[in-house]
Amino acid sequence: MKLNFLVVLLALKFLASCQTAKTGGKVVDRSRGEIIISSSGDQRSALPEASQDSSLTDARVQLIKATQKDPTDINSLLSLAQLQLAQDQFRDAEDSCQKVLRMDIKNQEARKILAQSSIRQDLNDKAMIFLSALGGEQSRDSSVINMLGLVSFSRGDSSDAMRLWKHALTLNANDISARMNLGVMYLKYRLLSQASTHFERILKVAPEHQDAKLHLAIIYGSRGAHEQSIATYKSILKSDPNNTLVLFNLAVSQNAISAYDDAIDSLKTYIKSSPSKSTQTDQAFALLEDINTNKQAKGQRISDSEIRALAANLNQKKGPAKNQDKSVGPVAPTPVQEAPQKSTANREPTKKAPKVEKQPSDLGDDKGIDELENELRAH
């Protein structure tokens, strides 16, 4: 029993840190010199990949053994489903939830995990079946409303998604996932003051929330505070040294303050770590060209051999034409997914342990943000 309790704590600790989406590469907006947010559509965290986390794999193996020993242990099955979902083992997560539902047909947590699994696979109609069973928009559970917002966003209705995320925060001001989503959407529409307020509030109660840090750094860069953005990116890289999103943005900010050699080094690491997607390699080519142009303007330049080596690496990443990503330009940011709550004994898994005693007022009143938004609309 003690071992299983430790495994559950590990699962909840990971899920508390894995609330934010892993957005895709950034591109340089040459007309404004700012950073535009874009997305790869990946719903995972900006933390190291869960699939490569050996501690999570070990925890999953232990939970499998626990459920084999006692197939009626609902808590262990739900914890196992959470870890399976975190590691993109969708079918296994769904199987674990179905086992729970065969014993407890109305189990709310199993339905939430099933809804999340469907959303992560872009099966929105299927997700809506589970979310409707959880009460739909009449639900008083902010995590359900947050997931409804994800479905609306996935269907291209950003306005309805924002409405739902705002509603989620009226139900639970401490819902970090809904707050992150709203902040990301404000950032998408360049409402930087509203976006930064949400990210700053999150960091007050969860100082190591990587995606809140990352998006705040993007805002620093958009405002021209590149030294501040660089410091923030470097703090994230300490725990996730191969985060391609951070590395690319770091190179952009280093280029902006004429730290060209540092920008090239960051870009090299980015190229080594980046996935084979044509849109991202195109962005890297554009940034390399910017760096070279800026260096030439100051009487410097990257050596031809270094350019050729970087270009060769980028071309290799791009791969055959048939495998290329056909999308062009920046797209909307991928919002955050709510982690399934494990049980009524662990009601706030979105918070970082041990800060589980926070009250709904801890993240503040959103009245000021709404007033600021209304002022902007008036102008």
The biggest beta sheet is recorded as:
2 strands, antiparallel
CATH architecture of the domain at 174-379: Alpha Horseshoe
**Which structural category fits the helices and strands?**
mainly alpha
CATH superfamily of the domain at 174-379: Tetratricopeptide repeat domain
Number of helices: 17
List the helices and strands and how they pair.
Layout: H1 2-17, E1 27-29, E2 34-36, H2 54-69, H3 74-86, H4 90-103, H5 108-120, H6 124-133, H7 142-154, H8 158-171, H9 176-188, H10 192-205, H11 210-222, H12 226-237, H13 244-256, H14 260-273, H15 278-297, H16 304-318, H17 367-378
Antiparallel strand pairs: 1-2
What are the defining features of this structure?
379 residues, mainly alpha, Serine Threonine Protein Phosphatase 5, Tetratricopeptide repeat, two-stranded antiparallel sheet, 17 helices, disordered N terminus
Quick summary:
The chain is an all-alpha fold and 379 residues long. The chain is built from 17 helices and 2 strands.
